[in-house]
Amino acid sequence: ESDGKDIYCDGVKIDQNVRKHETVYIGNKKSKKLHTEYCGGLPNEKNSIVFKSREEAIALGYEPCQNCKP
After folding, report:
1. Which tens digit of pLDDT belongs to each residue from 23-69?
2. Within 13 A of 64's CA, how many CA atoms are on the CB side?
3. Is 27 exposed, middle or buried (0-12, 13-18, 19+ CB in 10 A)?
4. How far apart are CA 51 and CA 34, in angstroms?
């Protein structure tokens, strides 16, 4: 059952069962900004990258979005 907010990265749907238990961190490959899955400023699928943790994204040079503040 979809909540209407399915998230895809590189053509792969992010499993909602995982999303219920863990925060999904999504980076914008162009701007190097990091978002939570509910942010209104999510990048389009082509520019998205999913991280396992906030720490992983920060280590790779991504900065937290000022909107959702992950």
Report:
1. 889 999 999 999 998 899 999 989 999 998 999 999 999 999 999 99
2. 8
3. buried
4. 9
